[in-house]
Structures are given as C-alpha cells and as structure tokens.
Amino acid sequence: VRAQVLESAFRLLVEKGPSAFSIGEVALRAKVHETSIYRRWRTKSALALDACLNFAEQTLAIPDTGALRSDLVDLLRRVSALLRSPEGKAMLALSFALEPEAIETRRTYWRIRLGAAAAIFERAAARGEISPDVDAKQFIEALIAPFFFRALVSLQPIEAWPFEQMVDRLLSAELRGGRKEGDISV
Amino acid sequence: VRAQVLESAFRLLVEKGPSAFSIGEVALRAKVHETSIYRRWRTKSALALDACLNFAEQTLAIPDTGALRSDLVDLLRRVSALLRSPEGKAMLALSFALEPEAIETRRTYWRIRLGAAAAIFERAAARGEISPDVDAKQFIEALIAPFFFRALVSLQPIEAWPFEQMVDRLLSAELRGGRKEGDISV
Lengths: 186, 186
Fold this sequence. Notes:
The structure is a homodimer.
Chain A: H1 2-16, H2 23-30, H3 34-40, H4 44-59, H5 68-84, H6 86-93, H7 100-117, H8 119-126, H9 136-154, H10 163-177
Helix pairs in contact in A: 1-2, 1-4, 1-6, 4-7, 5-6, 5-9, 5-10
C-alpha cells in the first residue's frame, strides 16, 4: 500500500503541482481510504516529502562504480537528466512553494539526499582515494548547484554545463591539496 | 530622468514583486509621464531588466583589487550579502516569474552580468596570473551557483557556504592544471 500511495502522490504532484495536491485526491488515485493515508502521513507536506524521496531514491540511486570520479560523473549525469524531465521540472516547481511547512519539507529532503550521496565519499575514503576529512555534502553541493542555477536562475541550457570538467577540477584540487608531507606517491 | 525611473522601478519591484509591477505605477513614483517611460522602454520587462541591471551595477561593482583571488572573494562576499538583503530577496522572487517575456529578460540579465564579471579574469590573465583560456563565465557560475542553490532549493543558510575554500580549490586546480611544461615558476 505504501508504494502505491507514494507513487500516486508523486504522479499527482507532477501533473497538478503542489497547490492542487491533496490527500483526498491521492486517496482516490491510490484507491485507498483517506484515513489510512492520514494514519501514516499526518500532513500533505509529509506525504509530498516522502513521495519525492521515494522517487529520488529510485531515479537517483547513489552510484557505486568502484571509483570516486566515475561515481560522481554518473550521479551528475542522472541529476542533469532528471532536471530536464517532466518529473524533475515538477520537483523544481516545488521550489516555488514557500509555505512554512513546505520549507521544512525541502530542508529535510536535501539533508537526506545530500547525506545519502555522502556514501560515495565514504567508499572512496575506504579505498584510499580521498581523505576522510573531505566534506562530502559540500563537495556534492558545489557540483550539483550549477544545474539548479541554470534551471531556476540564469535559464541557460543545463545540458551545456561542463560537469565532468568541474569534477576533475575539484578532485584535482582535493587530491593535490590533501597530499601530506612525506607522502611519496606522485 | 533615466536614473530616477530606474530607481523607482527597482523600489517598486522590491516592495510589490513582479506581478504588481506596472509602468503606470513607476511613472507615478518617478513623477514622469508614462509616455516618456514607454518611449525609452517599450515593455515592463525591458524596464524591469534595466532596473535590476542598474541596481546590480551599483551594488555589485566588479572588484579590481589587483589580484584574482581577492577579486573573486570580494565579489562572492557581495553576492552573498546581496542575496540575504531585502533587495536580493526581491530579485530572487523574480526567478519565480516565468512568463515568456520574463524568461528572456533573465537570460539577458545573466548574460550581461556574467560577461561583466569576466573582466576579473581578463585582468588576471593580463597580469599573468591565470591562462587566458580559462572560461571566466563558467568559473564564476561554479562559484556563485551554491548561493542560489541554498537560497532557492535546499534552503540552507547562505552565510555558511565556504566560498573562500571553493575559490581556493578551483584556483588551485586551474593554476596547477594550467601550468605548462617548461614553465619554471613554482
């Protein structure tokens, strides 16, 4: 039932936007009773948050290719594609919902998503690819922010942003800057 | 008259937002005839664009401190402060205006502003600080995007973004990566 409700809720968000989003309509679509939605999700913000997280977990699974660079490139390629899709545009439109409840929902969404992506850096540190001191969330924020800047602010084409080059720049700074005195590898 | 109209137009945008923005009200505030505004700016989008550019030119004058790093840090400090001010929040609210005319206006605004900031890199290249091949607009986009990401998307505090560290990372990548074989300076 949970998956069915979240899927219906996400579709409704995509089709009608956050202002037309209601638990009543989700219940109709998911063919469940309203009360059973309210039992699990107390507010429509909580339901919208879970619906977006559920979709993001499926679409933006955190990559595990065995190397930091290819993990990051893979993640950014998916973020870029998502932001150009109808689902991504609907999620961007949620950025325009500024009611107090929606604000908390979005903070939580990003705390969870950036936290999940940090796993890429934990694995890289375990492989000895990068210092465990690198702030993974900040690193990922720096890499994904330009896509959102283009989509929401400057309205330039997202697909033209040279994200691989940016991965290389930031990684090269980290790998060189993080090398310790006495480290003999070149 | 031009300065007076642009100042009144910008104040009106800040106070009432883009939807309540009209040439009639700007004329009232600036104490000029509507027709003399229409003569110079044919549409309210053109007027809003000029009003924002005029404000940005005054508030975000492109720094010229004599060194690339301090120019960038100075610019980013001002962008961060602006985005937290009432004027900056009003300009962010313009990001929510998605009528076709407003879209063209914003593209033009960013083309002009990123182009102006590129002067920082031209001067740095002339001083021999950085390769003239570095794409200045992309560099600046990468540096300012996280402020907008936090302000519009993740809703995290803008003032907590470590922009100096990011300047150092990107510059270190550029200076090291850009060094040519046979270059003997260290």
